[in-house]
Amino acid sequence: MPKRGSADAALAPRVPWLTTDGDDTIVAVIVVPRASRAQIDGEHDGLLRVRVAAPPVEGAANAALVEHLARVCRLPRRAVTLVSGDTSRRKRVRLAGVSPADVLAALRR
């Protein structure tokens, strides 16, 4: 896994919504709740737009976001955690043990 400042990290394309934190990757997202289905919509205002079917009630949309990102990135659910934005549409999500290049590759599948 590339570390901050390593040559491998420099080879990964610069994406404004991806940052590294040690061996982890932080993804800045904007969530669109109550969508017809969960999907990644690409970049919007410098954030990754993610649609989830769950409503923004009692953390349902947050749980759906974490589940969807775990499934897309092929990670166990415990490796994906919400860092900030519990009640906001703009959130930061930590993907444990994954490089930004791996996240981009998973999103392109």
General description of the model:
By secondary structure, the chain is an alpha+beta fold. The chain has one domain (15-91, 103-108): Conserved Hypothetical Protein Mth637, Chain: A (2-Layer Sandwich). Helices cover 25% and strands 32% of the residues. The chain contains three helices and six strands, in the order H-E-E-E-E-H-E-E-H. The protein has helices at 7-11, 60-72, 100-108; strands at residues 18-21, 24-32, 39-44, 47-51, 80-84, 90-95. Strands 1, 2, 3, 4, 5 and 6 form a six-stranded mixed beta sheet that branches. The longest helix has 13 residues, at 60-72. The protein is globular. The two termini are 20 Å apart. Residues 1-8 have low confidence and may be disordered.
Write a concise synopsis of the structure shown.
It is built from three helices and six strands, in the order H-E-E-E-E-H-E-E-H.
List its salient traits.
alpha+beta, globular, Conserved Hypothetical Protein Mth637, Chain: A, 6-stranded mixed sheet, 109 residues
Quickly name the level 1 CATH class: Alpha Beta
Task: Give the overall silhouette.
Answer: globular
Distance between the termini: 20 Å
Global mean pLDDT: 89
Content-based structural category: alpha+beta
Q: What is the CATH fold-level name?
A: Conserved Hypothetical Protein Mth637, Chain: A
Quick one: biggest sheet?
6 strands, mixed
Q: Which percent bin holds the helix content? A: 10-25%
The CATH homologous superfamily: YggU-like
- Number of helix segments? 3
Pick out the low-confidence regions: 1-8
CATH architecture: 2-Layer Sandwich
